[in-house]
Every structure is written in C-alpha cells, then in structure tokens.
Amino acid sequence: MPETVSPQDLAKDITWDLSDLYRSLDDPALERDLTEALERAKKFEAKYRSQISPRPPAPDTLLAAFQEMESIREQADRAMSFVFLLFAADTQNPRHGAMMQKTQERLTELRKHLLFFELGVAALPDGPAEMLIADQRLARYRHVIEKLRTFHPYQLSEPEERIIDEKANTGVRAFGRLFDETISRMKFRLKEGGKIKELGEQEVLSLLYDSSRKRRRAAASALTDGLKANGPLLGYIFNVVVADHASEDRLRKLPDPMASRHLDNEVVPAAVEALLDACDRNVGTVARYYRLKKRLLRLDRLYDYDRYAPLKSSGALIDFESCRERVLASFSAFSQKAHEIAKTFFERHWIDAA
C-alpha cells in the first residue's frame, strides 16, 4: 500500500446507508411515522389508563398493553434513530440539528401519553405484581416489569415526571447536544515537520496510539491546547449537567449520585463498591505494568502520551476489507449469532467508518 495513503483515506468511502430506515429527511414516511405514533399513543392512553390502576390489570390486558406500547415505541424510535444517526454523522448541518430538536420534542409529547402505564406498572402492589411476573403469558415482558418496579421508590407524580421530561429538551439534553456540536467543530493544530495540520478530535486521539513518540507528543500537545481554548465553555456544560443531575437526585430522594446509574445498569451498590475496592487494592499492579512498559519501550521516563504506545508495530496500514474479516472472525469465535448480526451490518452498509 502506498506510504502516502493515510488511515482517513482508507475510510473515506465507508459511509452508512440509512435507506433501510428512511430515504432522507424529506421522506414522507418519516413524518407519517411520527404523526401516526403520537395518535396511537393517545388512543393507548384512552384505552388502558382505567385498566392499569387503581386495580391491578388482568394478565391478558397487561400483555396486550405491552405489545401495543412496544409497537408504538418501535415506530417512534425508528424515526428518532434515523434523525440521530444523521446528526451524529454531521453535527454541523443546521438542518440535522433542527430536525433533532424537533423530533425530541415530538417524542416528549408522545411519552406524555405512555407515562401513566410505566408509572402504573411500577406502582403495582407486591402480591399482584409477583403473580403477573410469574404468569407465562407475560414471560416476554417479565424483565421489563421487574425493572420498572425498581424505579418506583424514586418516581414522582405523573405531572411532575411530565415536567421533568419536557424541560429536559431545553435543559440537559440541549447541553448534551451543545457539547457534541462543540467537540465536532473543534480543530486541533498538530505541529509536525515544520508544518501545521488541523485535525478533528478522533483524528488527533488516534495519533496517541502511534508508534512514533514524537508524533504522540505532538498529538497530546495539540489536544491539550485545543481543549484549553474551549475550556470555559466545556467546563460550563459539564457543571450544568452535574448540577442538573444533583437537582433531579434531590427531587427523587436518591441516596447518592451513583444510585440512578446503578438502577439503569441493574447492579447493586455493593457490587460496584467491591469493584472499586478491588481497583484501589491493586493499584500497584497498574504501576508495575507501566514500569514494565517503560522498560520494553526503552524509555527513561514514561509520560501520559506514552500510555497507548504500541510495543511493536509494523507501521503498515490495514485496509477496511482486512479489518472486516478480522472483526467477523472474532465475533464468530465468540458467538455465531453475534457473527451473523455483525455480518449484516457490513452487508447492509450500516457502518460509517468515515
């Protein structure tokens, strides 16, 4: 392969084809799905609100409700996935950003009509809930019921939950989008060989794995300078997100800042604490690893930009097709089902390597 070829050149034509979702933002099916999903959600609320509470629902009723809600969510999420993927590939396109905001707002409106159901299932008394969980007709949704119920002690009233979700579009979600757009817009000035190259975040981060120490050092310097220049804005975004998290934790009376993450991850706090304790007790292993790496790299001192330095590198670039075969072989060794799923992503062009 010619030396003039860069890693970016190898990936520039590998872009995803989203036509399995919609043809474009102008595809009438996109608007139709968003509108239809909202109308279905309204009908869902009218039909099931009185059947979920105050009395526990019959298994068949709950099964039908879960199936209908799943279908509504799939229709709405299909639209959201398409818009998000377009935005992720090009955050600087104003149309993508506008559609992202519009779709988030429309999904918030849709969730308002489904919220009663999730809160109602979460609030089921223990006895009836256990009977429903054990019912074979609800086997497909057993885990959903169990997970919804873990959130019940920290949920607010339905009107309050609606307000939190709606305000998030101009709050924490908006700041998350601002962060993504800011990072994607940033250019990092890499000084190399008397020349200056402007690289994106992912490009400069990839150079921290380069076999050339000089290039790694230049990349680390470029990354630091670029982040410093945007420090006030990035710091403000971070502080707002942290403050929002703390505020919601107080409203929900969550015991500590990690509790909501534990609930989402379905882990008990004791397991996480055990993991953290094990890391603390074995910090010497990490130090030993870096001392060994320093010796293998034949360095007098190991700096932060040496952490990802390869111990051995051929310097050759690997083309996308070869990478594809390696990835699929790894999946196949792990699970044939995982291999088939990954293979579909390559065959249907659902990968955006560029």
How would you describe the overall organization of this protein?
The protein is mainly α and 354 residues long. Helix content is 67%, strand content 3%. It has 17 helices and two strands. It has helices at residues 7-11, 28-52, 59-89, 94-112, 115-122, 126-134, 142-151, 158-167, 172-185, 201-206, 213-229, 231-252, 259-265, 269-281, 283-296, 320-334, 336-347, and strands spanning 188-192, 195-199. Strands 1-2 form a two-stranded antiparallel sheet. Helix 2 runs parallel beside helix 5 (115-122) and helix 3 runs antiparallel to helix 4 (94-112). It is globular.
Summarize the topology.
Elements lengths: L6 H5 L16 H25 L6 H31 L4 H19 L2 H8 L3 H9 L7 H10 L6 H10 L4 H14 L2 E5 L2 E5 L1 H6 L6 H17 L1 H22 L6 H7 L3 H13 L1 H14 L23 H15 L1 H12 L7
Antiparallel strand pairs: 1-2
